[in-house]
Write a structure and sequence with these properties.
Two copies of one chain form a homodimer. The mean pLDDT of chain A is 96. In chain A, β8, α3 (128-136) and β9 form a beta-alpha-beta unit. Helix content of chain A is 36%, strand content 26%. The longest helix of chain A is centred in the last third of the chain and has 18 residues, at 256-273. The first copy, chain A, is built from ten helices and 13 strands. In chain A, α1 (29-37) runs parallel beside α8, α3 runs parallel beside α5 and α6 crosses α7. The first copy, chain A, has one domain: Ribokinase (UDP-N-acetylmuramoyl-L-alanine:D-glutamate ligase, 3-Layer(aba) Sandwich). Chain A is globular. Chain A binds chain B through residues 89-90, 185-189, 206, 209-210, 212, 218-224, 226-230, 257, 260-261, 264, 291, 294-295, 297-303, 305, 307, and chain B through 89-90, 185-189, 206, 209-210, 212, 218-223, 226-230, 257, 260-261, 264, 291, 294-295, 297-303, 305, 307.
Chain lengths: 307, 307
Protein backbone atom coordinates (compact mmCIF):
# COMPACT_ATOMS: atom_id res chain seq x y z
CA UNK A 1 0.00 0.00 0.00
CA UNK A 2 1.24 3.52 -0.76
CA UNK A 3 1.96 5.85 2.12
CA UNK A 4 0.49 9.33 2.44
CA UNK A 5 2.16 12.03 4.46
CA UNK A 6 -0.43 14.53 5.69
CA UNK A 7 0.58 17.88 7.18
CA UNK A 8 -1.83 20.44 8.53
CA UNK A 9 -3.61 21.89 11.50
CA UNK A 10 -5.63 19.99 14.06
CA UNK A 11 -7.92 22.34 15.86
CA UNK A 12 -11.04 23.31 17.67
CA UNK A 13 -13.69 25.10 15.62
CA UNK A 14 -16.75 27.00 16.75
CA UNK A 15 -19.11 27.41 13.83
CA UNK A 16 -22.33 29.30 13.35
CA UNK A 17 -24.49 28.69 10.28
CA UNK A 18 -28.09 29.63 9.49
CA UNK A 19 -28.94 26.13 10.80
CA UNK A 20 -27.40 26.56 14.24
CA UNK A 21 -24.25 26.67 16.32
CA UNK A 22 -21.77 23.84 16.61
CA UNK A 23 -20.15 24.89 19.89
CA UNK A 24 -16.51 23.85 20.21
CA UNK A 25 -15.89 20.86 17.94
CA UNK A 26 -12.93 19.10 16.35
CA UNK A 27 -11.60 20.67 13.17
CA UNK A 28 -8.37 21.40 11.35
CA UNK A 29 -7.14 20.65 7.83
CA UNK A 30 -5.08 17.58 8.77
CA UNK A 31 -8.00 16.11 10.69
CA UNK A 32 -10.34 16.31 7.68
CA UNK A 33 -7.66 15.15 5.26
CA UNK A 34 -6.59 12.16 7.38
CA UNK A 35 -10.13 10.99 8.13
CA UNK A 36 -11.13 11.25 4.48
CA UNK A 37 -8.01 9.74 2.93
CA UNK A 38 -8.20 6.81 5.34
CA UNK A 39 -11.29 5.50 3.51
CA UNK A 40 -9.12 4.95 0.43
CA UNK A 41 -5.59 4.33 1.65
CA UNK A 42 -5.28 4.07 5.44
CA UNK A 43 -1.46 4.05 5.47
CA UNK A 44 -1.26 7.69 6.58
CA UNK A 45 1.55 9.53 8.34
CA UNK A 46 0.34 12.55 10.25
CA UNK A 47 2.39 15.69 10.94
CA UNK A 48 0.65 18.23 13.13
CA UNK A 49 0.63 19.89 16.53
CA UNK A 50 -2.00 20.07 19.27
CA UNK A 51 -2.18 21.29 22.86
CA UNK A 52 -2.92 19.34 26.00
CA UNK A 53 -6.60 20.21 25.54
CA UNK A 54 -6.96 18.08 22.38
CA UNK A 55 -8.95 14.91 23.07
CA UNK A 56 -6.88 11.73 23.09
CA UNK A 57 -9.99 9.93 21.83
CA UNK A 58 -9.68 11.64 18.44
CA UNK A 59 -6.01 10.65 18.18
CA UNK A 60 -6.92 7.09 19.15
CA UNK A 61 -9.71 7.05 16.57
CA UNK A 62 -7.33 8.17 13.83
CA UNK A 63 -4.84 5.49 14.86
CA UNK A 64 -7.58 2.87 14.75
CA UNK A 65 -8.18 3.89 11.13
CA UNK A 66 -4.53 3.33 10.22
CA UNK A 67 -3.11 6.81 10.81
CA UNK A 68 0.43 6.89 12.21
CA UNK A 69 0.61 9.75 14.75
CA UNK A 70 4.32 9.65 15.59
CA UNK A 71 4.68 12.97 13.81
CA UNK A 72 1.93 14.57 15.87
CA UNK A 73 3.41 16.88 18.50
CA UNK A 74 1.36 17.17 21.69
CA UNK A 75 2.30 20.23 23.76
CA UNK A 76 0.76 19.36 27.10
CA UNK A 77 0.95 22.84 28.61
CA UNK A 78 -0.34 24.74 25.61
CA UNK A 79 -3.63 25.14 23.83
CA UNK A 80 -4.70 23.84 20.42
CA UNK A 81 -5.38 26.11 17.47
CA UNK A 82 -8.88 27.61 17.71
CA UNK A 83 -11.02 29.11 14.96
CA UNK A 84 -14.49 30.53 15.17
CA UNK A 85 -16.55 31.66 12.20
CA UNK A 86 -20.02 32.54 11.08
CA UNK A 87 -21.50 31.76 7.68
CA UNK A 88 -23.77 34.12 5.80
CA UNK A 89 -27.13 33.05 4.46
CA UNK A 90 -25.80 31.97 1.07
CA UNK A 91 -23.13 29.77 2.75
CA UNK A 92 -20.60 31.00 0.19
CA UNK A 93 -19.03 33.60 2.43
CA UNK A 94 -18.13 33.66 6.10
CA UNK A 95 -16.74 35.96 8.73
CA UNK A 96 -13.91 34.83 10.94
CA UNK A 97 -14.82 35.78 14.50
CA UNK A 98 -11.80 34.45 16.39
CA UNK A 99 -8.43 32.99 15.40
CA UNK A 100 -6.17 31.80 18.24
CA UNK A 101 -3.01 30.31 16.78
CA UNK A 102 -1.78 28.88 20.12
CA UNK A 103 0.50 25.88 19.41
CA UNK A 104 0.35 26.57 15.68
CA UNK A 105 2.16 29.91 16.11
CA UNK A 106 5.48 28.19 16.89
CA UNK A 107 4.95 24.94 14.98
CA UNK A 108 8.24 23.42 13.86
CA UNK A 109 7.44 20.14 12.10
CA UNK A 110 9.86 17.26 12.64
CA UNK A 111 9.51 14.22 10.40
CA UNK A 112 9.98 10.81 12.02
CA UNK A 113 12.51 8.70 10.07
CA UNK A 114 9.85 6.36 8.72
CA UNK A 115 7.91 9.28 7.19
CA UNK A 116 10.79 10.42 5.01
CA UNK A 117 10.05 8.10 2.11
CA UNK A 118 6.31 8.71 1.84
CA UNK A 119 4.90 8.12 -1.65
CA UNK A 120 2.28 10.87 -1.57
CA UNK A 121 2.30 14.14 0.35
CA UNK A 122 -0.66 16.39 1.10
CA UNK A 123 0.32 19.73 2.56
CA UNK A 124 -2.79 21.14 4.18
CA UNK A 125 -3.22 24.89 4.50
CA UNK A 126 -0.48 26.16 6.82
CA UNK A 127 2.20 28.81 6.73
CA UNK A 128 4.19 28.15 3.52
CA UNK A 129 7.51 27.94 5.37
CA UNK A 130 6.15 25.17 7.59
CA UNK A 131 4.94 23.37 4.46
CA UNK A 132 8.38 23.75 2.90
CA UNK A 133 10.20 22.50 6.01
CA UNK A 134 8.28 19.26 5.65
CA UNK A 135 9.22 18.70 2.01
CA UNK A 136 12.85 19.55 2.75
CA UNK A 137 13.04 16.78 5.35
CA UNK A 138 12.05 14.06 2.89
CA UNK A 139 14.78 11.60 1.86
CA UNK A 140 13.29 10.90 -1.57
CA UNK A 141 11.18 12.84 -3.95
CA UNK A 142 7.60 11.58 -3.41
CA UNK A 143 5.52 10.46 -6.38
CA UNK A 144 3.28 13.47 -5.86
CA UNK A 145 3.31 16.49 -3.58
CA UNK A 146 0.04 18.41 -3.36
CA UNK A 147 -0.56 21.57 -1.40
CA UNK A 148 -3.42 23.74 -0.31
CA UNK A 149 -2.97 27.37 0.65
CA UNK A 150 -5.13 30.48 1.05
CA UNK A 151 -5.39 34.19 0.30
CA UNK A 152 -4.00 35.02 3.78
CA UNK A 153 -0.55 33.65 2.86
CA UNK A 154 -0.68 35.41 -0.52
CA UNK A 155 -1.20 38.66 1.40
CA UNK A 156 1.45 38.31 4.10
CA UNK A 157 3.97 35.67 2.96
CA UNK A 158 4.11 35.79 -0.82
CA UNK A 159 7.88 35.25 -1.02
CA UNK A 160 7.74 32.19 1.24
CA UNK A 161 4.77 30.93 -0.73
CA UNK A 162 6.62 31.30 -4.03
CA UNK A 163 9.54 29.26 -2.64
CA UNK A 164 7.21 26.47 -1.52
CA UNK A 165 5.28 26.47 -4.81
CA UNK A 166 8.53 25.58 -6.61
CA UNK A 167 8.61 22.27 -4.71
CA UNK A 168 5.09 20.98 -5.31
CA UNK A 169 3.39 19.10 -8.13
CA UNK A 170 -0.24 19.96 -7.44
CA UNK A 171 -1.66 23.22 -6.17
CA UNK A 172 -5.22 23.04 -4.81
CA UNK A 173 -6.87 26.43 -4.31
CA UNK A 174 -10.19 28.11 -5.01
CA UNK A 175 -11.13 30.38 -7.89
CA UNK A 176 -10.68 33.64 -6.01
CA UNK A 177 -7.28 32.51 -4.76
CA UNK A 178 -6.28 31.62 -8.32
CA UNK A 179 -7.20 35.12 -9.41
CA UNK A 180 -5.34 36.71 -6.51
CA UNK A 181 -2.22 34.57 -6.99
CA UNK A 182 -1.98 35.25 -10.72
CA UNK A 183 -3.68 38.58 -11.30
CA UNK A 184 -5.68 36.90 -14.08
CA UNK A 185 -9.47 36.82 -14.09
CA UNK A 186 -9.54 33.96 -16.62
CA UNK A 187 -8.82 30.69 -14.84
CA UNK A 188 -7.29 29.30 -18.04
CA UNK A 189 -4.78 32.15 -18.12
CA UNK A 190 -4.28 31.83 -14.37
CA UNK A 191 -3.43 28.14 -14.74
CA UNK A 192 -0.69 28.96 -17.26
CA UNK A 193 0.89 31.43 -14.85
CA UNK A 194 0.75 28.93 -12.00
CA UNK A 195 2.53 26.33 -14.13
CA UNK A 196 5.40 28.83 -14.39
CA UNK A 197 5.54 29.03 -10.57
CA UNK A 198 6.27 25.33 -10.07
CA UNK A 199 3.17 23.12 -9.96
CA UNK A 200 2.47 20.84 -12.96
CA UNK A 201 -1.13 20.38 -11.94
CA UNK A 202 -3.65 22.93 -10.74
CA UNK A 203 -6.94 22.05 -9.09
CA UNK A 204 -9.36 24.93 -8.68
CA UNK A 205 -12.14 24.39 -6.15
CA UNK A 206 -15.29 26.29 -7.07
CA UNK A 207 -17.54 25.23 -4.17
CA UNK A 208 -21.10 24.61 -5.37
CA UNK A 209 -19.82 25.00 -8.96
CA UNK A 210 -17.47 21.99 -8.80
CA UNK A 211 -13.75 21.67 -9.37
CA UNK A 212 -11.41 22.17 -12.31
CA UNK A 213 -8.21 20.28 -13.03
CA UNK A 214 -5.53 21.78 -15.29
CA UNK A 215 -2.39 20.10 -16.61
CA UNK A 216 -0.50 21.56 -19.56
CA UNK A 217 -3.15 22.20 -22.19
CA UNK A 218 -5.52 19.63 -20.69
CA UNK A 219 -8.55 20.41 -18.55
CA UNK A 220 -11.11 18.38 -16.64
CA UNK A 221 -14.17 19.70 -14.84
CA UNK A 222 -16.12 17.79 -12.24
CA UNK A 223 -19.41 19.29 -11.10
CA UNK A 224 -20.42 19.51 -7.47
CA UNK A 225 -23.47 17.51 -6.49
CA UNK A 226 -26.38 19.93 -6.14
CA UNK A 227 -27.70 19.59 -2.60
CA UNK A 228 -31.00 20.44 -0.96
CA UNK A 229 -29.14 21.90 1.95
CA UNK A 230 -25.56 22.75 2.82
CA UNK A 231 -25.51 22.42 6.57
CA UNK A 232 -21.90 23.45 7.25
CA UNK A 233 -19.27 24.04 4.54
CA UNK A 234 -16.38 24.00 7.04
CA UNK A 235 -13.73 21.49 6.02
CA UNK A 236 -15.21 20.78 2.58
CA UNK A 237 -11.99 21.90 0.87
CA UNK A 238 -9.83 19.75 3.17
CA UNK A 239 -12.16 16.81 2.68
CA UNK A 240 -11.84 17.30 -1.08
CA UNK A 241 -8.05 17.24 -0.68
CA UNK A 242 -8.29 14.11 1.48
CA UNK A 243 -10.41 12.29 -1.08
CA UNK A 244 -8.07 13.43 -3.83
CA UNK A 245 -4.82 12.29 -2.19
CA UNK A 246 -6.45 9.16 -0.79
CA UNK A 247 -7.61 8.05 -4.22
CA UNK A 248 -4.27 8.92 -5.85
CA UNK A 249 -2.43 6.84 -3.26
CA UNK A 250 -4.83 3.95 -3.75
CA UNK A 251 -4.42 4.17 -7.55
CA UNK A 252 -0.66 4.37 -7.02
CA UNK A 253 0.21 5.74 -10.42
CA UNK A 254 0.28 9.45 -11.25
CA UNK A 255 -1.60 9.82 -14.54
CA UNK A 256 -3.99 12.47 -15.78
CA UNK A 257 -6.82 9.94 -15.91
CA UNK A 258 -6.24 8.95 -12.28
CA UNK A 259 -6.13 12.62 -11.41
CA UNK A 260 -9.54 13.10 -13.08
CA UNK A 261 -10.97 10.25 -11.03
CA UNK A 262 -9.33 11.62 -7.92
CA UNK A 263 -11.15 14.96 -8.19
CA UNK A 264 -14.44 13.09 -8.59
CA UNK A 265 -13.64 11.14 -5.42
CA UNK A 266 -12.64 14.38 -3.71
CA UNK A 267 -15.91 16.02 -4.76
CA UNK A 268 -17.94 13.03 -3.62
CA UNK A 269 -16.31 13.09 -0.19
CA UNK A 270 -16.77 16.86 0.10
CA UNK A 271 -20.48 16.43 -0.64
CA UNK A 272 -20.74 14.32 2.53
CA UNK A 273 -18.74 16.77 4.64
CA UNK A 274 -21.25 19.61 4.30
CA UNK A 275 -24.18 17.48 5.47
CA UNK A 276 -23.36 17.85 9.18
CA UNK A 277 -21.30 20.07 11.48
CA UNK A 278 -17.54 19.62 11.40
CA UNK A 279 -16.05 16.17 10.92
CA UNK A 280 -19.22 14.44 12.13
CA UNK A 281 -20.17 13.02 8.74
CA UNK A 282 -16.61 12.06 7.85
CA UNK A 283 -16.15 9.66 10.76
CA UNK A 284 -19.30 7.63 10.14
CA UNK A 285 -19.21 6.75 6.42
CA UNK A 286 -19.50 3.20 5.13
CA UNK A 287 -18.13 1.85 1.86
CA UNK A 288 -21.73 1.56 0.68
CA UNK A 289 -22.29 5.28 1.37
CA UNK A 290 -19.22 6.14 -0.69
CA UNK A 291 -20.14 3.81 -3.58
CA UNK A 292 -23.65 5.22 -3.69
CA UNK A 293 -22.38 8.79 -3.76
CA UNK A 294 -19.92 7.99 -6.52
CA UNK A 295 -22.76 6.51 -8.52
CA UNK A 296 -24.62 9.80 -8.01
CA UNK A 297 -21.63 11.61 -9.55
CA UNK A 298 -21.60 9.22 -12.49
CA UNK A 299 -25.33 9.80 -13.03
CA UNK A 300 -24.81 13.54 -12.63
CA UNK A 301 -22.04 14.00 -15.15
CA UNK A 302 -21.49 11.00 -17.42
CA UNK A 303 -23.33 10.40 -20.69
CA UNK A 304 -22.37 8.64 -23.88
CA UNK A 305 -21.97 11.11 -26.72
CA UNK A 306 -21.34 10.29 -30.36
CA UNK A 307 -19.00 12.87 -31.81
CA UNK B 1 -36.99 15.88 -40.28
CA UNK B 2 -38.63 17.35 -37.18
CA UNK B 3 -39.83 20.94 -37.30
CA UNK B 4 -38.86 23.57 -34.75
CA UNK B 5 -41.00 26.60 -34.09
CA UNK B 6 -38.86 29.45 -32.79
CA UNK B 7 -40.39 32.56 -31.25
CA UNK B 8 -38.43 35.54 -30.00
CA UNK B 9 -37.05 38.96 -30.69
CA UNK B 10 -34.95 40.00 -33.65
CA UNK B 11 -33.11 43.15 -32.86
CA UNK B 12 -30.26 45.57 -33.07
CA UNK B 13 -27.75 45.49 -30.23
CA UNK B 14 -25.05 47.95 -29.31
CA UNK B 15 -22.59 46.29 -26.96
CA UNK B 16 -19.63 47.53 -25.02
CA UNK B 17 -17.23 45.08 -23.39
CA UNK B 18 -13.75 45.54 -21.93
CA UNK B 19 -12.52 44.46 -25.39
CA UNK B 20 -14.30 47.15 -27.36
CA UNK B 21 -17.54 48.40 -28.83
CA UNK B 22 -19.66 46.50 -31.32
CA UNK B 23 -21.58 49.46 -32.71
CA UNK B 24 -25.09 48.56 -33.96
CA UNK B 25 -25.15 44.86 -34.81
CA UNK B 26 -27.75 42.15 -35.32
CA UNK B 27 -29.09 40.51 -32.17
CA UNK B 28 -32.27 39.16 -30.64
CA UNK B 29 -33.18 35.84 -29.06
CA UNK B 30 -34.87 34.36 -32.14
CA UNK B 31 -31.89 35.28 -34.30
CA UNK B 32 -29.42 33.44 -32.08
CA UNK B 33 -31.77 30.47 -31.58
CA UNK B 34 -32.55 30.07 -35.27
CA UNK B 35 -28.95 30.37 -36.45
CA UNK B 36 -27.76 27.89 -33.84
CA UNK B 37 -30.55 25.33 -34.19
CA UNK B 38 -30.11 25.36 -37.97
CA UNK B 39 -26.78 23.52 -37.61
CA UNK B 40 -28.67 20.53 -36.19
CA UNK B 41 -32.15 20.62 -37.68
CA UNK B 42 -32.66 23.30 -40.34
CA UNK B 43 -36.43 22.81 -40.60
CA UNK B 44 -37.18 25.92 -38.55
CA UNK B 45 -40.30 28.07 -38.44
CA UNK B 46 -39.63 31.59 -37.28
CA UNK B 47 -42.10 33.82 -35.44
CA UNK B 48 -40.85 37.33 -34.79
CA UNK B 49 -41.27 40.99 -35.72
CA UNK B 50 -38.86 43.54 -37.16
CA UNK B 51 -39.05 47.06 -38.49
CA UNK B 52 -38.26 48.36 -41.96
CA UNK B 53 -34.72 49.02 -40.76
CA UNK B 54 -33.89 45.34 -40.35
CA UNK B 55 -31.54 44.13 -43.10
CA UNK B 56 -33.15 41.86 -45.69
CA UNK B 57 -29.76 40.17 -46.05
CA UNK B 58 -30.11 38.61 -42.58
CA UNK B 59 -33.58 37.31 -43.42
CA UNK B 60 -32.25 35.92 -46.70
CA UNK B 61 -29.34 34.31 -44.90
CA UNK B 62 -31.67 32.59 -42.44
CA UNK B 63 -33.83 31.36 -45.31
CA UNK B 64 -30.77 30.00 -47.08
CA UNK B 65 -30.10 27.95 -43.94
CA UNK B 66 -33.57 26.41 -44.00
CA UNK B 67 -35.48 28.86 -41.82
CA UNK B 68 -39.08 29.52 -42.87
CA UNK B 69 -39.79 33.22 -42.32
CA UNK B 70 -43.50 33.32 -43.18
CA UNK B 71 -44.20 34.02 -39.50
CA UNK B 72 -41.82 36.96 -39.42
CA UNK B 73 -43.75 40.23 -39.44
CA UNK B 74 -41.96 43.11 -41.14
CA UNK B 75 -43.40 46.50 -40.18
CA UNK B 76 -41.98 48.72 -42.88
CA UNK B 77 -42.69 52.05 -41.19
CA UNK B 78 -41.51 51.12 -37.76
CA UNK B 79 -38.19 50.45 -36.10
CA UNK B 80 -36.76 47.16 -34.83
CA UNK B 81 -36.21 46.42 -31.16
CA UNK B 82 -32.98 48.02 -29.95
CA UNK B 83 -30.89 47.16 -26.90
CA UNK B 84 -27.66 48.68 -25.73
CA UNK B 85 -25.59 47.39 -22.83
CA UNK B 86 -22.19 47.54 -21.22
CA UNK B 87 -20.42 44.63 -19.56
CA UNK B 88 -18.37 44.99 -16.42
CA UNK B 89 -14.82 43.73 -16.17
CA UNK B 90 -15.78 40.28 -14.89
CA UNK B 91 -18.24 39.83 -17.81
CA UNK B 92 -20.75 38.31 -15.40
CA UNK B 93 -22.77 41.47 -14.93
CA UNK B 94 -23.89 44.17 -17.29
CA UNK B 95 -25.74 47.46 -17.30
CA UNK B 96 -28.54 48.06 -19.77
CA UNK B 97 -27.98 51.50 -21.25
CA UNK B 98 -30.91 51.70 -23.67
CA UNK B 99 -34.00 49.59 -24.37
CA UNK B 100 -36.23 50.70 -27.25
CA UNK B 101 -39.08 48.22 -27.66
CA UNK B 102 -40.30 49.74 -30.95
CA UNK B 103 -42.12 46.98 -32.96
CA UNK B 104 -41.84 44.59 -30.04
CA UNK B 105 -44.10 46.77 -27.89
CA UNK B 106 -47.19 45.85 -29.90
CA UNK B 107 -46.12 42.42 -31.13
CA UNK B 108 -49.10 40.16 -31.77
CA UNK B 109 -47.78 36.85 -33.10
CA UNK B 110 -49.80 35.13 -35.81
CA UNK B 111 -48.93 31.54 -36.68
CA UNK B 112 -49.04 30.58 -40.35
CA UNK B 113 -51.14 27.42 -40.87
CA UNK B 114 -48.11 25.26 -41.64
CA UNK B 115 -46.49 26.19 -38.29
CA UNK B 116 -49.35 24.86 -36.20
CA UNK B 117 -48.13 21.28 -36.08
CA UNK B 118 -44.51 21.94 -35.20
CA UNK B 119 -42.82 19.09 -33.33
CA UNK B 120 -40.61 21.21 -31.11
CA UNK B 121 -41.17 24.75 -29.84
CA UNK B 122 -38.59 27.13 -28.42
CA UNK B 123 -40.11 30.24 -26.85
CA UNK B 124 -37.30 32.78 -26.63
CA UNK B 125 -37.40 35.43 -23.93
CA UNK B 126 -40.43 37.64 -24.61
CA UNK B 127 -43.43 38.90 -22.70
CA UNK B 128 -45.10 35.77 -21.27
CA UNK B 129 -48.48 36.61 -22.81
CA UNK B 130 -46.91 36.74 -26.28
CA UNK B 131 -45.27 33.38 -25.58
CA UNK B 132 -48.63 31.97 -24.49
CA UNK B 133 -50.44 33.32 -27.56
CA UNK B 134 -48.08 31.25 -29.69
CA UNK B 135 -48.71 27.99 -27.85
CA UNK B 136 -52.47 28.59 -27.90
CA UNK B 137 -52.45 28.83 -31.70
CA UNK B 138 -50.95 25.36 -32.11
CA UNK B 139 -53.26 22.67 -33.52
CA UNK B 140 -51.50 19.80 -31.78
CA UNK B 141 -49.53 19.47 -28.62
CA UNK B 142 -45.85 19.57 -29.71
CA UNK B 143 -43.44 16.86 -28.54
CA UNK B 144 -41.66 19.46 -26.43
CA UNK B 145 -42.25 23.11 -25.58
CA UNK B 146 -39.27 24.90 -24.05
CA UNK B 147 -39.24 28.49 -22.85
CA UNK B 148 -36.76 31.06 -21.70
CA UNK B 149 -37.74 34.03 -19.57
CA UNK B 150 -36.03 36.58 -17.32
CA UNK B 151 -36.25 38.38 -13.98
CA UNK B 152 -37.91 41.38 -15.66
CA UNK B 153 -41.09 39.35 -16.34
CA UNK B 154 -41.00 37.91 -12.81
CA UNK B 155 -41.02 41.48 -11.53
CA UNK B 156 -43.76 42.99 -13.69
CA UNK B 157 -45.83 40.11 -15.15
CA UNK B 158 -45.77 37.30 -12.63
CA UNK B 159 -49.40 36.29 -13.15
CA UNK B 160 -49.00 36.11 -16.93
CA UNK B 161 -45.77 34.20 -16.45
CA UNK B 162 -47.45 31.66 -14.16
CA UNK B 163 -50.14 31.05 -16.80
CA UNK B 164 -47.55 30.46 -19.50
CA UNK B 165 -45.44 28.21 -17.28
CA UNK B 166 -48.41 25.83 -17.01
CA UNK B 167 -48.17 25.19 -20.76
CA UNK B 168 -44.50 24.38 -21.15
CA UNK B 169 -42.39 21.26 -20.68
CA UNK B 170 -38.96 22.80 -20.23
CA UNK B 171 -38.06 26.03 -18.47
CA UNK B 172 -34.60 27.42 -19.25
CA UNK B 173 -33.45 30.15 -16.87
CA UNK B 174 -30.35 31.12 -14.94
CA UNK B 175 -29.53 30.46 -11.29
CA UNK B 176 -30.54 33.90 -10.01
CA UNK B 177 -33.82 33.71 -11.91
CA UNK B 178 -34.49 30.28 -10.38
CA UNK B 179 -33.96 31.78 -6.93
CA UNK B 180 -36.18 34.75 -7.70
CA UNK B 181 -38.96 32.63 -9.21
CA UNK B 182 -39.06 30.17 -6.31
CA UNK B 183 -37.77 32.05 -3.29
CA UNK B 184 -35.40 29.12 -2.67
CA UNK B 185 -31.64 29.56 -2.49
CA UNK B 186 -31.03 25.85 -3.05
CA UNK B 187 -31.44 25.05 -6.74
CA UNK B 188 -32.55 21.52 -5.83
CA UNK B 189 -35.40 22.92 -3.77
CA UNK B 190 -36.10 25.52 -6.45
CA UNK B 191 -36.43 22.80 -9.08
CA UNK B 192 -39.09 21.03 -7.01
CA UNK B 193 -41.13 24.22 -6.76
CA UNK B 194 -40.84 24.84 -10.49
CA UNK B 195 -42.12 21.34 -11.23
CA UNK B 196 -45.27 22.32 -9.34
CA UNK B 197 -45.67 25.35 -11.62
CA UNK B 198 -45.93 23.33 -14.83
CA UNK B 199 -42.60 22.42 -16.40
CA UNK B 200 -41.43 18.79 -16.19
CA UNK B 201 -37.85 19.75 -16.96
CA UNK B 202 -35.77 22.62 -15.62
CA UNK B 203 -32.51 23.76 -17.15
CA UNK B 204 -30.52 26.21 -15.06
CA UNK B 205 -27.86 28.16 -16.92
CA UNK B 206 -24.93 29.09 -14.69
CA UNK B 207 -22.75 30.92 -17.21
CA UNK B 208 -19.08 30.08 -16.70
CA UNK B 209 -20.17 27.41 -14.19
CA UNK B 210 -22.10 25.34 -16.73
CA UNK B 211 -25.70 24.21 -16.83
CA UNK B 212 -27.89 21.95 -14.72
CA UNK B 213 -30.77 19.79 -15.90
CA UNK B 214 -33.47 18.65 -13.46
CA UNK B 215 -36.27 16.17 -14.10
CA UNK B 216 -38.15 14.58 -11.21
CA UNK B 217 -35.45 13.33 -8.87
CA UNK B 218 -32.86 13.16 -11.65
CA UNK B 219 -30.10 15.70 -12.24
CA UNK B 220 -27.43 16.22 -14.85
CA UNK B 221 -24.69 18.84 -14.79
CA UNK B 222 -22.68 19.89 -17.83
CA UNK B 223 -19.68 22.13 -17.20
CA UNK B 224 -18.93 25.18 -19.29
CA UNK B 225 -15.72 25.06 -21.27
CA UNK B 226 -13.19 27.24 -19.45
CA UNK B 227 -12.04 29.91 -21.90
CA UNK B 228 -8.99 32.14 -22.09
CA UNK B 229 -11.21 35.04 -22.95
CA UNK B 230 -14.91 35.77 -23.07
CA UNK B 231 -15.14 38.42 -25.73
CA UNK B 232 -18.90 39.11 -25.62
CA UNK B 233 -21.44 37.07 -23.60
CA UNK B 234 -24.44 38.58 -25.41
CA UNK B 235 -26.65 35.86 -26.84
CA UNK B 236 -24.87 32.97 -25.09
CA UNK B 237 -28.10 31.95 -23.35
CA UNK B 238 -30.10 32.07 -26.58
CA UNK B 239 -27.37 30.15 -28.37
CA UNK B 240 -27.52 27.54 -25.62
CA UNK B 241 -31.29 27.30 -26.16
CA UNK B 242 -30.77 27.02 -29.92
CA UNK B 243 -28.28 24.18 -29.54
CA UNK B 244 -30.58 22.49 -27.05
CA UNK B 245 -33.73 22.59 -29.17
CA UNK B 246 -31.78 21.91 -32.37
CA UNK B 247 -30.28 18.74 -30.94
CA UNK B 248 -33.59 17.60 -29.43
CA UNK B 249 -35.31 18.01 -32.81
CA UNK B 250 -32.51 16.14 -34.55
CA UNK B 251 -32.71 13.32 -31.98
CA UNK B 252 -36.48 13.34 -32.40
CA UNK B 253 -37.32 11.49 -29.22
CA UNK B 254 -37.84 13.20 -25.85
CA UNK B 255 -35.81 11.17 -23.34
CA UNK B 256 -33.74 12.22 -20.37
CA UNK B 257 -30.58 10.89 -22.04
CA UNK B 258 -31.25 12.96 -25.16
CA UNK B 259 -31.91 15.94 -22.92
CA UNK B 260 -28.50 15.40 -21.28
CA UNK B 261 -26.83 15.36 -24.67
CA UNK B 262 -28.84 18.40 -25.73
CA UNK B 263 -27.46 20.53 -22.90
CA UNK B 264 -23.93 19.49 -23.85
CA UNK B 265 -24.65 20.58 -27.43
CA UNK B 266 -26.18 23.80 -26.10
CA UNK B 267 -23.11 24.46 -23.98
CA UNK B 268 -20.77 23.71 -26.87
CA UNK B 269 -22.60 26.16 -29.13
CA UNK B 270 -22.66 28.83 -26.39
CA UNK B 271 -18.90 28.48 -26.03
CA UNK B 272 -18.57 29.61 -29.65
CA UNK B 273 -20.99 32.49 -29.25
CA UNK B 274 -18.86 34.35 -26.70
CA UNK B 275 -15.75 34.29 -28.90
CA UNK B 276 -16.84 37.26 -31.04
CA UNK B 277 -19.30 40.14 -30.95
CA UNK B 278 -22.97 39.30 -31.49
CA UNK B 279 -23.94 36.56 -33.92
CA UNK B 280 -20.66 36.82 -35.81
CA UNK B 281 -19.31 33.46 -34.66
CA UNK B 282 -22.67 31.69 -35.04
CA UNK B 283 -22.95 32.35 -38.76
CA UNK B 284 -19.55 31.01 -39.73
CA UNK B 285 -19.27 27.59 -38.02
CA UNK B 286 -18.45 24.41 -39.90
CA UNK B 287 -19.42 20.87 -38.93
CA UNK B 288 -15.74 20.28 -38.16
CA UNK B 289 -15.74 23.22 -35.72
CA UNK B 290 -18.75 21.76 -33.93
CA UNK B 291 -17.36 18.23 -33.80
CA UNK B 292 -14.07 19.49 -32.44
CA UNK B 293 -15.80 21.52 -29.75
CA UNK B 294 -17.95 18.58 -28.75
CA UNK B 295 -14.81 16.49 -28.40
CA UNK B 296 -13.45 19.19 -26.11
CA UNK B 297 -16.55 18.77 -23.93
CA UNK B 298 -16.09 15.00 -23.86
CA UNK B 299 -12.45 15.45 -22.83
CA UNK B 300 -13.48 18.04 -20.27
CA UNK B 301 -16.13 16.05 -18.48
CA UNK B 302 -16.13 12.34 -19.35
CA UNK B 303 -14.02 9.70 -17.59
CA UNK B 304 -14.53 6.01 -16.96
CA UNK B 305 -15.07 5.38 -13.28
CA UNK B 306 -15.36 1.98 -11.61
CA UNK B 307 -17.91 2.21 -8.83
Amino acid sequence: MSSILVVGSMAFDDIETPFGKSNKIIGGAATYIAYTASYFNPNIQLVSVVGGDFPQSVIDDLEDRGVNTEGLQVKKDEKSFFWSGKYHLDMNSRDTLVTELNVLGTFDPVLPENYKNADFVMLGNLSPDVQRKVIEQMDNRPKLVAMDTMNFWMDIAREELDKTLKLVDVLIINDEETRQLTGEYSLVKGAKKIFEMGPRFLIIKKGEHGALLFHGEQMFYVPALPLEEVFDPTGAGDTFAGGFIGYMAKAGEVSFDNMKRAIIYGSAMASFCVEKFGTQRMVELTQADIDQRLQAFVDLSQIKLEV
